[in-house]
Design goal:
The complex is a heterodimer of chains A (about 280) and B (about 220). With about 280 residues, chain A is of the alpha/beta class. Helix content of chain A is about 30%, strand content about 20%. Classes of the chains: A alpha/beta (about 280), B alpha+beta (about 220).
């Protein structure tokens, strides 16, 4: 006969789907951030560098060793195998430079974070549909703390499966930071409430993050004339929403580095409370 | 009575739908890149068609540098800035790009012009990425701003309509090449109908309708 210990029951409860609080008291569900209000930038990320936070850039790959990027701990790619798509480890390289540019922004904001890359664009071609699903699904399975997705797909047939994946990430503490489409196009997954969506403001301020009271785009960050990594140690200046999202990815890494195990809801709330226009500065 | 003129117009309409190589669409594309180049004060502007069968980008219209020889030139679809835009559907501006990985230098050299800045936007028609419009070396005051990128995206919307028309015309031409004799016979029927007096034409149209119903039933 087997017996269940209290700690065993707690573990079982933790693993099970929670839909009520009938067998517990409020004191049984402590919240890490409950005694720390008011939330200020200093409290949220002051002194943090993102150390211990795993960030994955889902894009065109990331060129490792660039002074503005530094170490890329893991480098993977979506590749075609036996008529399907799979994710394999590859040498760190970038097919068009976009992923490297995004990674350099994340690195600048969160210099201590652990950078990973999964390439979904470039060699395979085929755009952002099936490869996006395969790469994002893999990144969510790996439980990266933050996933930067500076692209989207406008194909409606991918919408529902992307929505389910985004929910899965949301409830498993993998934060998807997705750039809004640059044009007024219906695309995904940035429109989903389970991700953190980012558009561009037009200020020349890389530290300025604004909350948007008129969603679906929830935050604005710098996406205009952003200094980013080019090849062989060079820099370029890029413009587009693609380059706004990595600012919020980096900021999320700072917050999670200082406050590990936040839920996506808590993180998004902290981003809101620390946004410059919410703080009134 | 002006029946011959009427019949000519009807035949022109049918053959236009079936076989017109799309001079209007091509002129519109040329106009779009010409205006884009002037508005952005750029060295060149061009529109690529994304040839999915060949997985290539094809120059369809060029204004400025390369306009004499670039139309029809093909490039791999997933390289460089245009390739990234075709893959993602996202407009982008890249400045200071001599040596940028996003900018495929070897491809640029094939065009005999290596720019320092590129603005590029997807050419979309009903959610489908048909191609890319790009502006090379826009005036420094006309780049690096989100508003400029929005303006280029607006041009891309017009280009989408024109490129869609061009693709449709080419598809019609292919259909004509495959079934030319049948279409010629249909055009002959239209010509005869056009030459008939009104009462006879009404009878003729009823005959055509009956034939259409029989054929539709066969197709079912």
């Amino acid at each position: 006969m087997t017996t269940t210990t209290p700690s065993g029951r707690a573990a079982a409860r933790a693993a099970a789907l929670t839909w009520n609080l009938l067998d517990r008291r409020p004191a049984d569900i402590p919240v890490a951030t409950s005694e720390t209000v008011p939330v200020t930038p200093e409290w949220a990320y002051g002194g943090a560098d993102g150390a211990g936070v795993r960030v994955c850039v889902v894009d065109s790959g990331v060129e490792a060793g660039h002074p503005l990027v530094g170490e890329v701990v893991g480098s993977h790619a979506v590749v075609g195998r036996d008529g399907g798509l799979t994710v394999e480890e590859v040498a760190p390289a970038d097919t068009c430079g976009h992923g490297t540019a995004c990674a350099s922004i994340v690195r600048r904001v969160a210099p201590g974070c652990e950078l990973h890359s999964v390439r979904i664009l470039g060699e395979n071609g085929g755009g952002t549909g099936a490869a996006l699903l395969a790469g994002l699904s893999w990144a969510i399975e790996q439980r990266f703390d933050v996933i930067n997705l500076s692209l989207s797909t406008s194909r409606p047939q991918f919408s529902q499966v992307l929505r389910e994946m985004a929910d899965d990430a949301y409830f498993n503490r993998s934060v998807i930071v997705a750039s809004a489409h640059n044009s007024r196009i219906e695309s995904f997954p940035w429109r989903f409430s389970s991700v953190i969506s980012v558009g561009s403001h037009a200020e020349d301020d890389s530290d300025l993050v604004l909350y948007n009271p008129d969603p679906p785009v929830e935050f604005f960050a710098r996406g205009q004339a952003v200094q980013v990594a080019g090849p062989n140690g060079s820099t370029t200046r890029n413009t587009g929403n693609s380059f706004a999202a990595p600012h919020v990815t980096g900021l999320s890494a700072l917050i999670l580095g200082k406050h590990p195990r936040l839920t996506t809801f808590e993180l998004k709330t902290i981003l809101y409370l620390t946004a410059a226009n919410v703080r009134g500065v | 009575m002006d029946h011959p003129a009427d019949s000519t117009a009807m035949i022109a309409a049918i053959s236009g739908a079936l076989a017109d190589p799309g001079p209007d669409d091509r002129e519109l594309l040329a106009s779009i890149v010409r205006v884009a180049r002037e508005i952005f004060g750029a060295a060149a502007s061009s529109i690529f068609l994304f040839d999915r069968e060949e997985d290539q980008l094809v120059f369809e219209a060029v204004s400025g540098e390369g306009e004499d020889f670039l139309v029809g030139t093909r490039f791999p679809a997933h390289r460089g800035i245009a390739g990234w835009v075709a893959d993602t559907g996202e407009p982008v501006t890249v400045d200071d790009l001599r040596g940028s990985a996003m900018f495929a230098q070897d491809l640029a050299e094939r065009t005999r012009y290596v720019p320092d800045a590129i603005m590029a936007a997807p050419v979309v028609h009903r959610d489908e990425i048909l191609g890319v419009i790009q502006v090379l070396d826009p005036h420094p005051q006309s780049r690096s701003s989100l508003a400029d990128l929005d303006l280029l995206a607006a041009f891309a919307g017009q280009a989408g309509l024109a490129l869609h028309g061009l693709v449709r015309s080419r598809a019609a031409r292919s259909a004509l090449a495959l079934g030319g004799a049948e279409f010629e016979r249909l055009a002959g029927i239209v010509r005869v109908l056009g030459e008939l007096a009104p009462e006879q034409r009404a009878s003729g149209l009823r005959l055509v309708e009956s034939l259409h119903e029989v054929l539709a039933a066969m197709a079912r």
